[in-house]
């Protein structure tokens, strides 16, 4: 794509988006002015929650958390190689925007309206396969000169509840070692060989952490890892030099949100304990809390997943004993959300409520009346 086209495209898109966001906010007549002020005040005073990850799991959680607090920071991985993000990474040398885009949409005040705009995908011509949001972030990156600054501008432009930042502003790639000694490289290879991995790292190994992460962590009330793919969403963030140490040295409680299902190739055959042990092995982090779904998935849906070699992640008595020795408190609840009677996701509201409860003091939420 011509660079001039990208610049013009970005400027026009920015104006359109700003107008759409403003219109969506003004057209919300569901609440009185007084009710809206009260809600906005509670959100402003809400707990400071840092969520670390990427992919669908992260954006799902964010869509629920924004209903409880404005003080959200999503720290997002930048190792995506698939689809439109992968093409832009290869052709333009930019960091992959897909996961960032999904988080921005999830935190928007009117996520339905913004979703239609940013996730619109072209189906023909040179732009086939690209989403409108990815191209806008490409334009913003070209205008701003670097990816992190572009994302900060997007945070402001879209007036989202919270912030989205990349874990690093540098180009990194996942690499790993298999049980047979073979090296695999790139997110796509890692995701298809995860269950055979014995080690995982980033290349280059000296990437710099986003400059604000240290202060963000120190000022937070809760750190949440996941939900999301273990090797390609959660761990890539923790592998950036210095990030794990900042988390460990803070006094902030750490929560790991267990995935609902294993993932074919990546975590095939894994238990919840396997997930946590990988986090410990590569980052030195032992979560203080584990959030685990305790509601059975309908047999019809389990069969659909089973055909793809994916199974529900459950916690056994033996695992509970192991977690007790690790000083991991287990919080079980119904976090299940069934989509179109054929797939499962975390329920964004129930999951968010459980996390908010962990920020309570003496049984009360400090910022609530």
From TrEMBL:
Keywords annotated in UniProt: Cytoplasm, Membrane, Transmembrane, Transmembrane helix
GO molecular function: LPPG:FO 2-phospho-L-lactate transferase activity
Coiled-coil residues: none
Domain of life: Bacteria
Localization, UniProt: Cytoplasm
GO BP term, pick one: regulation of cell shape
Transmembrane segments: 6-25
CC annotations in GO: cytoplasm
Function (record text): Required for morphogenesis under gluconeogenic growth conditions.
Family membership noted in the UniProt record: Belongs to the gluconeogenesis factor family.
HAMAP family on file: Gluconeogen_factor
Protein name as annotated: Putative gluconeogenesis factor
Organism expressing this protein natively: Aminithiophilus ramosus
Gene: yvcK
